[in-house]
Design a protein that fits this description.
Pfam families: ECH_1. With about 250 residues, the protein is of the alpha/beta class. The chain contains 11 helices and 9 strands. Helix 1 links the parallel strand 2 and strand 3.
Length: about 250
């Protein structure tokens, strides 16, 4: 299955995304991811969730080919709702979510990581929002949780990437480790959290979310409104098609 949950040790749920070739998720994939993370957090036996991926990179965002194949707006609307659901599932998960990131983390990947509680990254990890090159907007909400405001704007306008060491400098990545040590480092941190009284940790998650200065649900949906405008104007369709033809 593309998205699975395993329990390698008591108290730890590991949600793995494996959608070759680049973990670009279709509509159903985003909802499935939301369901897996939510279910893991609702399980009283789960004290902490690790979100990771197989393959070349952590996440390449949405499946643009699926959107382009759909002559209506159903896929576009579906993927926007799906992304919102997955990002919210990570943020609202009843227990802390550790994102273990390797390779590329783009678009929707930044949405997931920006809403995670802790980020562990491999030394080959890069993060970015290519949205403006695809005729879309979104996840500035989440990139702003990883870097300072003006850097976020520069990265967003230029569709540039930033590496794990730079994010570690800004304090948004907890640790940067060699790729082969990523999973074990994430699990080691998960074990530390899982050893705590889960009643206290679950209360702490609610408390921290409650004092968060960023209303992540509302701000992301606000961003999505401009994506719909660009699609209605025909801007997004031509940008997506140009991207697909360039990669052909």
């Amino acid at each position: 299955m593309p998205i699975t949950t395993q329990h390698p040790q008591p108290g730890i749920a590991v949600v793995t995304v494996d959608v070759p070739p680049v973990n670009a998720l279709p509509v159903r994939g985003w909802f499935d991811l939301a369901d897996e993370v939510t279910a893991a957090g609702r399980d009283p036996a789960t004290h902490v969730v690790v979100l990771r991926a197989e393959g070349r990179g952590f996440n390449a965002g949405v499946d643009i080919k699926e959107i382009q194949r759909d002559k209506s707006f159903d896929a576009l609307i579906g993927v926007n709702h799906g992304c919102a659901a997955a990002f919210s599932a990570v943020y609202d998960c009843a227990v802390p979510v550790i994102a273990a990131v390797h390779g590329f983390c783009l678009g929707g990947g930044v949405g997931l990581v920006g809403n995670a509680d802790v980020v562990i990254a491999a030394d080959d990890a890069t993060f970015g929002l290519p949205e403006v090159d695809r005729g879309a907007l979104g996840a500035a909400t989440h990139l702003a949780r990883l870097v300072p405001q003006h850097l976020m704007r520069a990265l967003y306008y230029t569709a540039s990437t930033i590496d794990a060491h730079q994010l570690h400098h800004h304090g948004s990545v907890y640790a940067v480790v060699p790729r082969e040590e990523l999973d074990e480092t994430a699990l080691d941190l998960a074990r530390s959290i899982a050893a705590k009284d889960t009643r206290v940790i679950r209360a702490a998650k609610q408390a921290i979310n409650g004092i968060d200065p960023q209303a992540v649900h509302h701000s992301y949906r606000f961003e999505q409104g401009f994506t719909f405008e660009l699609n209605l104007a025909g801007v997004s369709d031509s940008a997506r098609q140009a991207f697909l033809e360039k990669g052909a």
